[in-house]
Specification:
The protein is an all-alpha fold and 105 residues long. It is 75% helix and 0% strand.
Amino acid sequence: MSADSVYAVWEHLLALSKIQLIIIGLSLALIVAVSKISRFLFLLGFVVIFLTVLLPEITKRYEQSQIAPIINFFIRQGMDATQDPPSPAPPAEQPPKSPSPEERK
């Protein structure tokens, strides 16, 4: 696009009335909104298909494979390794001793 064509488009836009500019703005906003809605619906459909069709098939293959026990072993080892050590019991506080009758004197 050359500078002359950009200038010609700008001249054309300046010549439009307010109503025409509002209509152009609304149509661009509508195009953007439809684009965002269609993208959302596509992603929603993809997630639904993944959860209803692909995930059960992947889970079934994983359960029947020989790698499942190995992964479960590593998961158990990781859970054991990341356990917090048992906290030592805090020392029991001794109640203050009341002075004996001899100390009171």
